[in-house]
TrEMBL record:
Transmembrane segments: none
Annotated keywords: NADP, Oxidoreductase
UniProt organism field: Vibrio gelatinilyticus
Name this protein carries in UniProt: hydroxymethylglutaryl-CoA reductase (NADPH)
Superkingdom, natural source: Bacteria
Biological process, per Gene Ontology: coenzyme A metabolic process; isoprenoid biosynthetic process
CDD domains in the cross-refs: HMG-CoA_reductase_classI (cd00643)
Xref: Pfam families: HMG-CoA_red
Family to which this protein belongs: Belongs to the HMG-CoA reductase family.
Length: 419
């Protein structure tokens, strides 16, 4: 007989015992009183606007931390990256590695800057990176790349949807020409069609050069979208620039077989003695852990199987000026660990959804550019190498955390470093 979860705290039931219905209504009812502290007017970054916001905030201690003299001196560089600017937040940055990567694009030993407030994180990635480097490095391969935007169109019936598709597939050359007028780097490579009843989703696929490309593909697709609405012989009942099929900033399973951003795989083969030296466990135990947690992930409905890609991605994305919200989609992937016929540990990761760039976005901001410069990967021609380094970093993290669980050190490390 299942147990009742009476020990769980039910706030609504508890509140019902402490306040009357009238008091509850008063607590949660909309409040239409006047705003007494209107902080924002113009969104633009000017000294006058920043001063105005801090006058309204009236919190000098916070101002001292967020708008320190160095930030004040260089605040104009943030003009294209934020609205309603009031200052900067300082995060600790640690360095892991060097991490040796033998890729199609990334070749060398990379010091890895990681921005985090989570104790034990950088130490864990440093251990994994040192282990991989001791094995001669991770082999890494960029498999595919592309960024999508997916307009959606609703019609009155399936017949209209079919007629619309029959027309739109003849328009690729013109849609490509229009989309590429908005960017000097982006290239429209394909448009896929998905029909669901009387709804049509067009998947615009782009190459975005060395930029991560979300804004690029949005602007490019919007021009094509407006052309479709103005010229289609079958007028949609309604339509939107994105129908949520792209997976933008959301965990999704479709990219496991395809790509969004950059798809990369990385592997390493580790001799028994190095597993014991760095991880204090055995290849067999590492494989057993992988088998058990794969089943556990399936039982929980996890998309993909990995231990903690999100830790590496969040820390490196923040340090290197990537869009941190893309961790939601980039952290999808597969980790696999096996024992080879020689008794060594084979470990691999495949990440189909790395949204990384080395130009544009936040990559040119002072601290973020400094971190990319530490990697030697800022600027044009470097994004493919960065993606391979990121995959190798995730592999390092998987090895380290699995090793910690297998050796019984996971809790001990957090207790030692976090307390």
């Amino acid at each position: 007989m299942p147990k009742l979860n009476l020990h769980k705290r039910d706030y609504v039931s508890q509140l019902g015992n402490e306040v009357t219905p009238e008091q509850m209504n008063e607590l949660i009812a909309p409040k239409h009183r006047a705003i007494t502290q209107r902080v924002n007017r113009s969104p633009y970054l000017t000294e006058k606007n920043v001063d105005y916001r801090w006058q309204k905030l009236a919190c000098p201690d916070s101002k001292l931390e967020l708008l320190d003299p160095h930030t004040q001196q260089q605040m104009s560089v943030y003009d294209k990256n934020i609205e309603y600017f009031i200052g900067t937040v300082k995060l600790p940055v640690g360095i892991a590695g060097p991490l040796r990567v033998n890729g199609l694009f990334a070749q060398g030993d990379y010091p890895i800057p990681l921005a985090t407030t989570e104790a034990a994180l950088v130490a864990s990635y440093h251990r994994g990176s040192s282990l991989i480097t001791a094995c001669g490095g991770a082999s890494a391969m960029l498999l595919n790349e592309g960024v999508t935007r997916t307009p959606g169109f609703a019609f009155r019936n399936l017949a209209e949807a079919g007629q619309f598709v029959a027309w739109v597939v003849t328009q690729f050359d013109e849609l490509k020409r229009l989309a590429e007028t908005t960017t000097s780097h982006g290239k429209l490579t394909d448009i896929n069609v998905n029909i669901e009843g009387n709804h049509v989703y067009l998947v615009f696929e782009y190459l975005t050069g060395d930029a991560s490309g979300q804004n690029m593909v949005t602007i490019a697709t919007n021009v094509a979208f407006e052309y479709i609405l103005e010229n289609t012989p079958i007028e949609p009942h309604y339509a939107f620039l994105d129908g949520n099929l792209s997976g933008d900033k959301k965990a999704n399973s479709q990219t496991l077989r395809s790509v969004r951003g950059k798809k990369v795989t990385a592997e390493v083969i580790i001799p028994v003695d190095l597993v014991e030296k760095y991880l204090h466990t055995t290849p067999e135990r590492m494989m057993q852990f992988g088998q058990m947690t794969t089943v556990g992930g399936a039982l929980s409905g996890t998309i993909g199987i990995n231990a903690h890609y999100a830790n590496a991605l969040a820390a490196l994305y923040i340090a290197c000026g990537q869009d941190a919200a893309c961790v939601a989609e980039s952290a999808i992937g597969m980790t696999r660990m096996e024992v080879t016929e020689n008794g060594e540990l084979y470990a691999s990761v495949t990440l189909p959804n790395l949204m990384v760039g080395t130009v544009g976005g936040g990559t040119g901001l002072p601290s973020q550019k400094a971190c990319l410069d530490l990697l030697g990967l800022h600027g044009n021609g470097q994004s493919q190498a960065l993606a391979e380094v990121v995959a190798a970093l995730c592999l390092a993290g998987e090895l380290s955390i699995v090793g910690a669980f297998c050796a019984g050190h996971f809790s001990r490390a957090h207790h030692k470093l976090a307390r």
